[in-house]
């Protein structure tokens, strides 16, 4: 009976996180509710047609994927930044740091700052590549907190971080429903909680 209860709680939490909803109704319909919300959100997010920069509409899933990939590569791999102009702008900024600011910048990170950073995160936000939402770290802080603090302090001391922690996904988030061009998306990085 205990295992069934655990599975039910896992099932409810899974669909609650997928639905990105904070509304709770009676336990009898909660799982169905979250499933409907998540399914509805997913169907509104499907890109059915896509308009290229040249105004051509494409409907094939493979062609849409290839076009989005090509346009993103064009935007982010081929820089249009005028480095001379950027350098002249940066030269106008004073590069002096006050003694007080310097003390804050070079001091070690405090244990409470690390804990606060974890506890300031939404506990049920989407997990990163490791599958662990911030709620996991918050709930088991008394067990894993010392290790997290040690690892974070090691990073600030050495400047090196585990490769597995530093991995991110870059994905496109729709700004509006029923998107049809790349301007309807914004790129975001999905990081692990610990990062």
Description of the molecule:
With 195 residues, the chain is mainly alpha-helical. It has three domains: 1-44, no CATH class; 49-95, no CATH class; 98-195, no CATH class. The protein has helices spanning 2-19, 27-44, 61-77, 83-91, 99-106, 111-119, 134-139, 141-158, and strands spanning 50-51, 57-58, 168-174, 185-191. A two-stranded antiparallel sheet has the order 1-2. Strands 3-4 form a two-stranded antiparallel sheet. The longest helix has 18 residues, at 2-19. The radius of gyration is 23 Å and the shape is flat. The two termini are 38 Å apart. The model has no long low-confidence stretch (mean pLDDT 79).
Topology:
Elements: H1 2-19, H2 27-44, E1 50-51, E2 57-58, H3 61-77, H4 83-91, H5 99-106, H6 111-119, H7 134-139, H8 141-158, E3 168-174, E4 185-191
Antiparallel strand pairs: 1-2, 3-4
Question: In a few lines, what is going on in this structure?
Answer:
The chain is mostly helical and 195 residues long. It contains 8 helices and 4 strands; from the N terminus they run ααββααααααββ.
The number of helical elements comes to: 8
Structural class: mainly alpha
Q: Give the uncertain stretches in residue-range form.
A: none
Helix content: 40-55%
The total strand number stands at 4
Summed up, the domain count is 3
State which percent range the strand residues make up: 5-15%
Give the spatial strand order of the biggest sheet. 1-2
